[in-house]
Amino acid sequence: MTAADDPLRSDLAESDYVPAQYVLSAVVYAERGDEILLLQRAEGSALAGQWFLPGGMVEPGELPEDGARRELLEESGLEIDGALEIVGAYPMRVYGYDTLQISYRGRLKDDADAVVSHEHDGARWAKASDMRALLTDEVVEQISGGRDDVRSILAHVRTDLDRYLARVG
What we know:
Elements: E1 23-32, E2 35-41, E3 51-52, E4 55-57, H1 64-76, E5 85-94, E6 97-107, E7 120-126, H2 128-134, H3 137-144, H4 148-168
Parallel strand pairs: 1-6
Antiparallel strand pairs: 1-2, 1-4, 2-3, 2-7, 5-6
Helix pairs in contact: 2-4, 3-4
């Protein structure tokens, strides 16, 4: 690598080079026994009625893992016991932002049930393998309604579920 190719050089900020820029978001595979928590998006929200992992935007200055823990607590009243493990990271466009979503997994502190926030209409516990089996091409197409952005999000969710399932066996 030559000095001109060094991406840490400050003079590149004055060049035509434009790096990818993402807002961070985080989701959690909150594990209770052999099931994970899914939350149903509330009426009036994006993808209302659909079931997703708890999570959301990481706040400025917040570490992604701390954002994942905060979002889980805010959305469900639940907390992870111990460390979170990174499952994956993928780009997606949500809330009008190009976002890098980081997914984590972790065991809950106890067997408490979720208390959903105003952002959700329900909570359920499901086997990740069952959730993955439901995300067929036909279901992805139905949920996406022909929208490429939603189709892309769901494709990344499927890949992330595959990574999660490979880790938990």
